[in-house]
Design goal:
CATH architecture of one domain: 3-Layer(aba) Sandwich
Low-confidence stretches: none
Strand order of the largest sheet: 3-2-1-4-5-6-11
Oligomer: single chain
Distance between the termini: 42 Å
Structural class: alpha/beta
Bound molecules: nicotinamide-adenine-dinucleotide
Strand content: 15-25%
Mean pLDDT: 95
CATH superfamily of one domain: NAD(P)-binding Rossmann-like Domain
Number of strands: 13
CATH topology of one domain: Rossmann fold
Largest sheet: 7 strands, parallel
Number of helices: 11
CATH class of one domain: Alpha Beta
Radius of gyration: 20 Å
Length: 336
Amino acid sequence: MDNKNKKILITGGAGFIGYFLTKHLLEEYGDNCELVLVDNFQRGKTDEDFKKLIGDKRIKFLELDLTDINSYGKLGNGYDYVYHLAAINGTKNFYAMPHETLRISTLSLIYILEWFRKENSQGKICFTSSNEAYAGALSAFGKLPIPTPENVPLVVEDTYNPRWSYAGSKLVGELFMINYAKMYNFRGVIVRPHNFYGPRAGYDHVIPEFSQRIAQKVDPFPIYGADDTRTFCYITDAVRAMRMLMDSQNTDSQPIETVHIGDFKEVTMKELAEKMFEVTGWKPNALDIKNSPEGSVKRRLADVSKLQKLTGWKPEISLEQGLKTTYDWYLANPKK
Ligand SMILES: NC(=O)c1ccc[n+]([C@@H]2O[C@H](COP(=O)([O-])OP(=O)(O)OC[C@H]3O[C@@H](n4cnc5c(N)ncnc54)[C@H](O)[C@@H]3O)[C@@H](O)[C@H]2O)c1
């Protein structure tokens, strides 16, 4: 790593990934960085962890709405890297406000790309897409290669189902990124996160839900889709992969790269629950096995060989370690 001072913008900086990415960049670059974090707390109020983080002298926090074009005049310029994370996340939100999911994601991306190409085109920009962008390809074509590489078709399965507002916004986002970068000749990376987990990730995913049920000693313990498999990538490994992709000269050429980020160790939902019983020291007398949630796929496994080839990344945090840290955080910070 060079010692040149790096100026970095993170949109959605108060969110789950933004928070851990900020911590990682501070550790990685030390005093050779200045970070500008932007968020409008759409996800919720600020919290003590975030307040403490932005107390660091290397961080400047701007409370701005990125769907307001006037916000962009306040960002300044001269950024080496821009991580554009701001979006509506969480499946419940896709159903409750699909129009906002589309508007916020698309408008903020168009505005940031316009700002970037005019004010900051010497820098490099990262856009967080999602595995949801290709999830519909499975029902459309009957199968997907497993592990799934980046170049499978992106599909919106049902335009009338509000759930697909999110996947649709990411599909459009990828097209904007690729074509803007090509047209204006700037550097960029599209990443597709696969089940990042850790503290402060919200309360509507499987690991926070298992954590809450364990804390409440729910017995029999419900498990939906016990044989379905997923991989889980601990957040510090995930943000390290994002940073390595941005730092790598292998991602400096055109067309820009789209890269899957995820772990490669598959676990069933039942195994996940059992691992959590092990690390928390509590075990129910019985399991209550239920059907998979509607629309859920049996297996999702990303091919992460491209990430490894570009950066040499490997996960460092074992599932046991990650689950223990995550559970402890949820125990101390129960859903209000
Ligand atoms: N967490 C995952 O595993 C995962 C998986 C797939 C994709 N992603 C993508 O990664 C990105 C970050 O995800 P996350 O998990 O940190 O989500 P998050 O909801 O925790 O963070 C998103 C942040 O964006 C902010 N934001 C929303 N609208 C804004 C606006 N108009 N102006 C300024 N800020 C705004 C929110 O307040 C929030 O803090 C998102 O684009 C998400 O779609 C995440």
